[in-house]
Amino acid sequence: MTSIRNLFSGLRASSSGTTAERARIDVITRNIANAQTTRMPGFDQPTPYQRQTVSFEPIMRKLETGQQVIEGVRVAAIEPDTSTPFEEIFDPGHPDRDERGIVRMPNVNATKEMADLITAVRAYEANLKAQENFIRMAETALRLAQ
């Protein structure tokens, strides 16, 4: 059982990475889609969309020896970005302006989001390639064993 588990550990690790990066891609695309949203539903006052961030954590497994090994990665949290301030622009004709004509815009920087999206897509593709390579190696090993 242990040898079979070890045999597929690489596949599990890349699969978990693919799942985690897919969640990151979804959050980034949501950020880009809401880059101009100045009024979120459920608030009395105009409240701009707040950028979301994804954090990962390792998936740990304890061995029979008591040692812990990393088996992959998962999404630990999707949280609002509270460290980046909202941008304020003067637009006296905007429906969500305050009494001074200031509109609070989302704290989403489209350029940064696009760079993050490229990184996430490349990490997703790398995990897919690792899965494909594992499957090819397993097929080759099965053919050799015949």
Secondary structure: elements and pairs:
Blueprint: H1 2-7, H2 9-33, E1 52-62, E2 68-80, E3 87-90, E4 102-105, H3 110-145
Helix pairs in contact: 2-3
Kindly describe this structure.
The protein has 146 residues and is of the alpha+beta class. It has one domain. Helix content is 46%, strand content 22%. It has three helices and four strands. A two-stranded antiparallel sheet has the order 1-2. A hairpin with a 5-residue loop joins strand 1 and strand 2. Helix 2 runs antiparallel to helix 3. The longest helix has 36 residues. It is elongated. The two termini are 22 Å apart.
Strand content: 15-25%
The global form is elongated
What distance lies between the first and last C-alpha atoms, to the nearest angstrom?
22 Å
| Strand runs, count | 4
Tell me the domain tally. Answer: 1
Class derived from helix and strand content: alpha+beta
- Spatial order of the strands forming the largest sheet: 1-2
Give the SSE order as H and E letters.
HHEEEEH
Major sheet: size, sense and barrel closure? 2 strands, antiparallel
Uncertain regions spanning at least 5 consecutive residues? none
What is the percent of helical residues? 40-55%
Q: How large, in whole angstroms, is the Cα Rg?
A: 22 Å
Q: Could you tell me the mean pLDDT?
A: 92
The total count of helices amounts to: 3
